[in-house]
Amino acid sequence: MAPPHIPGTILTVIPHMKPFTISLALTAALGLTISCLSAITCPGAEAAEPATTAAATTPIATPAGNSDFSAEGDDKEHASERKEIEGILNNIESQWNAHDIKAVMANYADDYYNNDGLDKKAVQKLTEDFWKTYPDAHSVSRTKEIRVDGNFATVESRDTATGTTKMKDMNSLGELQSVSEGQQYLKRLGNVWKIIGDRIDYEKVKVAFGLAKHLNASFTAPEQVKAGKLYAAKLEVNLPPGLHAVGSITNQPLVFPQKSPQEKTRRLGSSSDEPDQTPVLERVMSANKDNHNELLSATVILVNPNNSVMGVSLMTRRLNVVPDQPEIKDDTTTAANPSDDADKFADSSTKAGEEPAKGEVEKAKPEASKDEKPKAETEKEKLEEGYKNSPPSK
Fold first, then answer.
1. At 211, which CATH number?
2. Average pLDDT for 143-152
3. Is 61 a domain residue?
4. How are beta strands 294-303 and 309-322 bridged, if at all?
């Protein structure tokens, strides 16, 4: 029988509700598909010292009414603006939970743009797809801080979302759980505040079907890496008695439209293999060099002794990718440079107006050991292995 089909809309990017932006990490999760192995049969800082001079005997005080540099933040200033913004955000949350796309998008500026490269049009499309996949999607947001600076404002929040969805060959509804933290940027345009951008710093998503709803599993990875650098992601699972599991770990850039990664599953072990040890799947991957944030995904498929799928769990994490800045050379360094010695040699070996003999100033290059592999080749082999001690399941 055919393996379970995980539709591309299951793991769509989950919305960061206040900034009320459907995140690519959430909707991209909708696009995940799993390639089951053919063997699986499925039924269905400390404060700086105050500056002092010989004439100063008291610390410099912060001007009255100015809290820009206070550790306590903006407590009384802009109270009316913060209250207004909080009311707007509460209305948007209600509109979002009512799945009123026209009302929600009316709060976005036409030149809206976020840290995943999404514009207003893309956000609308992703939000509509998300609601279609999770018809009962509901979000709750907790505002952590609202900062106002003239006609601009920043909202920091922590947001959760829940919902249910269907998957072919599974008899139970899949349950969605998500949490995210980030900032939303607003600008007063005339007499109205509009959302002009946002960024998501942290995001985790889980969708579980069948027995996997009660599965104790963890998916860990760094939240930020440099572009092009290696990093590791780990999946740990406590299996229920009588079941074994296969799983996979993938990464993909967060771009729109989002593509679905294809990954063969690998055996995670069974509850009877080594009762005292937790099955682990760990993979070393390379961050993209295009400075796109990434979606990390882990899949666990629970299988009984008859090779029937009893549950599926899909987990995602956001990985923020920062540019790998080129090394800045220090012009003040006095260390000897091999090329300087070659130049000096050339100067001392020739008379004015004469060319040095051919090959006279060539620098000696150490011969590479025959057994020594180029660094690039070693890195490539490391990536091709990817998984640590986990061969593909057969």
1. 3.10.450.50
2. 94
3. no
4. antiparallel
Residue 192 pairs in a beta bridge with 189
According to DSSP, the β-strands at 294-303 and 244-253 are: antiparallel
Dmax (CA) for the chain in angstroms is: 90
- Residue 268 clears pLDDT 90, i.e. is over it: no
d(CA 4, CA 316) in angstroms, rounded, equals: 19
Cβ(19)–Cβ(157) below 8 Å: yes
Smallest CA-to-CA distance from 13 within 297, 283, 246, 235 is with 297
pLDDT on residue 30 = 55
The reported pLDDT for the residue numbered 291 is 92
Which residue in 393, 166, 165, 211 sits closest to 313, CA to CA? 211
Q: What are phi and psi of 257, to 5 degrees?
A: -75, 150
The C-alpha torsion from 92 through 96 and 98 to 99, rounded to 10°, is 140
Whole-number pLDDT of residue 294: 94
With cut-offs at 50, 70 and 90, classify the pLDDT of residue 41.
very low
- Close Cβ partners of 381 (under 8 Å, ≥ 6 residues apart): none
Domain that residue 36 falls in = 15-43+72-325
Q: Report yes or no on 367 lying in a domain.
A: no
Which strand (E) or helix (H) includes residue 392? none
Where does the pLDDT of residue 167 fall: very low under 50, low under 70, confident under 90, or very high at 90 and above? confident
pLDDT at position 81 is 93
Name the nearest CA neighbour of 316 among 207, 226, 213.
207
Helices marked H in the chain? 24-29, 79-97, 101-105, 120-133, 338-349, 375-385
- Does residue 288 lie in a domain region? yes
Q: Give the tokens for residue 47.
A: 């404060």
Query: Three-state SS string across 338-376, please?
Result: HHHHHHHHHHHHCCCCCCCCCCCCCCCCCCCCCCCCCHH
What are the tokens at 224?
């930020």
Q: What is the pLDDT of residues 226-267, one digit of tens each?
A: 999 999 999 999 998 889 999 999 999 988 887 777 778 898
Say if 33 falls within a structural domain. Answer: yes
Q: How many domains does the chain have?
A: 1
pLDDT tens across 84-141, in order?
Answer: 999 999 999 999 999 999 999 999 999 999 989 899 999 999 999 999 999 999 999 9
